[in-house]
Amino acid sequence: MKLKFAFFNLFLGCISLLLINTKFTSNVKGEELLNVHTNTEIKKGNFLIGLKQYLGGENDSFSKKQNINFTTDKGFLNLISSNGIKHKSKEINISWVDIPIKNPKTIERIVFGPFASYESAKKQAEKLKDKGFDTTVAYPKNWEVWIPFEDDLPEFKLKNKISRKINNFQITPVLRSEYSLMKLEGPIYITAQDDITINGVNFGKNFYLLKDLYGTWTLVQKIEFDDYLAGVLPYEIGPNSPLEALKAQAVIARTWGIFNSHRFNMDKYHLCTTTQCQVYKPPRITNKKVQKAIEATSNLILTYRNQPINAFYHGSNGGVSATAGESWQIQDYSYFNSFIDGSKSLNNNFKLPIKSESDVNNFLDFDKEDFYGSNHSLFRWNKKISSSEIKEKLIKNKLININDDVFDLNSIERGFSGRVTKLAIQTNKVNKSIVLVKDDIRRVLNFIPSNLFTINKLSDDLWLFRGGGFGHGVGLSQSGAIEMAKLGFSYEQILNHYYGDAKLKKFEILSQ
Fold it and tell me: Helix (H, G, I), strand (E, B), or coil: what is residue 393?
């Protein structure tokens, strides 16, 4: 629950805030504190990482008791707020208060989504832009596309959610001291010479608090490429992976980050820390092997026609790679091809495409020995799922109501690699069939590790999903890269294997 003030205390607090804000005058502007145009920071070799999102909101679990505590062991912390407040201390405490808005505004928009991925949301946004609409790709909980509400859009109003929100309060950060509260405005810049601990965790240096699209706030860190990778590699491919696999991961993680640095433009930073981006955690201890891989590939990226590629990667492709167009509702990239991921002899024995249910079953039955990455725990998998479990997923995603029952499931379309691209779910209602497409299949039926599967109805209430791989299957298979490295392949050979026509190139860093 946010800090609540009785009317008298709120009145005194507002007077105090007014006096304190008047006392500290400055020409400092938000634009001078933070260059929010992502291209500039990227060209300087920095990522802006949204460490903690939705601060000050109802679901804010990071700000315990609605408070964020910054400390440093050496020297002092420096805070600069866009409204001119400057503060220097060994410890800084920022809280959130709800300040009533004098003239509340009603925000109306038409919402498209949710989408399983940024890629699919972006594709929808591009289609709407082509029709002349002003679009925003947002991530309140899932990926969505917003357009302003207009009365003359009946086809959109019937098919999509209309969001109306009245803002009566403004979530406002305040700097707390023993005797006063100082109202702050974003961006708020907090830095120190030494590392900064935030709520008991050492995160490093150079932080911002930025207001987002949803009325809440984001804790953002500016971090150099290589320091960012030191917090990605241990959680994406594992610190004990062979050195050449770590080098390959360093190159593609750097490339992916640069290519996708516009992902959170709407909230003025580049990337998040979850699987919606790349998993990042501040490194507690420097791992020598990880550091060696990063240094050996410093500033190297994969390019196509001299531009960074969209370097997708995943855990296991189940022995066959996918094209981007199979996995998301987007156009294919020419540097991704579908191929059997294994030895030359395996490629001679098994040919693509894999089109039918029987083809997929034959592929899944094939001897695992010659595939790259066959040691992954989900290289082959079986899932027995009840009709009630499927029904529960459909209800949760608002695709059916509680009175509907699942009657049948059929894969009605497959991609070149055999992955299901359209799944039809028949209910007991006449002429009521739900069709899930590409990445929405795993978003809704999230018990499925990949789209490479077959379906067998065991009884009226039980289904067997039999499949291979973990993830979307596009680009580098981490388990495949690990095995290739163990077999003596260099990181350059690994990258060439998974990214075809892409070329290694140094990313030019501007002087700071």
Answer: helix
CB 291 within 8 A of CB 70: no
The C-alpha atoms of residue 92 and residue 78 are separated, in whole angstroms, by 9
Assign 381 to helix, strand or coil: strand
Q: Which amino acid is at 392?
A: E
φ/ψ of 11, rounded to 5, equals -60, -50
Confidence of residue 107 (pLDDT cuts 50, 70, 90): confident
Helix or strand run (H / E) with residue 107: strand 91-115
Q: List Cβ neighbours of 214 (8 Å cut-off, separation of 6 or more).
A: 54, 57, 138, 140
Write out pLDDT tens, residues 109-163. 999 999 999 999 999 999 999 989 999 999 998 999 999 887 666 566 556 677 7
CA 380 to chain centre: 26
Q: Over the stretch 466-499, which tens digit does the pLDDT of each residue have? A: 999 999 999 999 999 999 999 999 999 999 999 9
Q: Is the pLDDT of residue 7 over 80?
A: no
* Per-residue exposure over 278-317, b if at least 16 CB sit within 10 Å of its own CB, e if not: bebebbeeebeebbebbeebeebbbbbeeebbbbbbbbbb
User: For residue 300, what are the β-bridge partners?
Assistant: 506
| Distance between start and end Cα atoms, the chain | 42
Helix (H, G, I), strand (E, B) or coil at 376: coil
